[in-house]
Amino acid sequence: MKLVTPCATKIEINEVAPRDGLQIEARFVPTEEKIRWIDALSTTGLRRIEATSFTSPKAIPNLRDAADVVTGIQGREGVDITVLVPNVKGTERALDCQVDEINLVMSASNSHSLANLRMTPEQSLEQFAAILEVSKDSGVFINASLSTSFGCPFEGEVPEARVLELVEKLIDLGIQGVTLCDTTGMANPAQVKSLCEAALERWPETSFTLHFHNTRGMGLANALAAWQAGITRFDASLGGLGGCPFAPGATGNVCTEDLVHMFEAMGVDTGVDLDALLEVAATLPDLIGHDVPGQVVKAGKSTRRYAMPER
């Protein structure tokens, strides 16, 4: 299929299931199984995989094996391993494991920031400055995820101007990439398009990523709106796994294989081998012990054909 739009013909997908997906699962996935799973994902054409989080084991017990996971992964050329870190200590642990990218997290709303991080957005920015100082000579790419960019489960609307104000502060600090996060699936396509256009117009050289949850069934529609606005990087989670333990009502992320299927069907190159990705997605129920929300792994690709019924 040929594109009939001036939008980008190639996008990049960051797989977040090993971190965002596993952090709220009831079952702790053994370290060896996590490593095999991430290694399998790295063969599908994904360019970036968020493998874990260097956070307190008390806060996120499912990711208590962060260092063992990262050091156990089979390195593959062209696949960057990124990790989430909450503070300077986590940054130091991540740097010791020679990760490719560090992802910091803060909230656009004050209430979610206090509930999730026990600090205000302004205090998060102060901590980021200390993290940047620790990592300045490492050569590691530093990304910051801005939670509740499209709405807060406690406060409701987060003004676009507030989000842009915080993006500006992040960039002024020296943050290289910014992820705009729809933490509890409150975004709508018109809102997404407006914020993305505003951000890209003001900071065209900044690497922006969009992170959507499918809580209200609008994940793919929001991703499409972001792409139409000029975004070329997206977070997604295999099988639609995910959710924030500190965000009431949050469900899984937009599903990786469903997102890849949509864009590839439109003629947009994701760089991902969808058949290989579906093979890995099919192993998820056994890995985590329950069914997953992803649709394409169940229905098959839109090119699937069936035999005519007998008459």
TrEMBL record:
Q: Does the keyword Lyase apply?
A: yes
* Transmembrane region(s): none
- Pfam families with a match to the protein in the record: HMGL-like (PF00682)
What keywords sit in the KW lines? Lyase, Metal-binding
Q: Which residues form the Pyruvate carboxyltransferase domain?
A: 11-278
Matches recorded under CDD domains: DRE_TIM_HMGL (cd07938)
Protein transport is among the record's keywords = no
- Organism's domain of life? Bacteria
Spell out the molecular function terms from Gene Ontology.
lyase activity
Q: Which family does it belong to?
A: Belongs to the HMG-CoA lyase family.
**Per its UniProt record, what PANTHER family does this chain match?**
HYDROXYMETHYLGLUTARYL-COA LYASE (PTHR42738)
What protein am I looking at? Hydroxymethylglutaryl-CoA lyase
- Please give the organism: Vreelandella neptunia
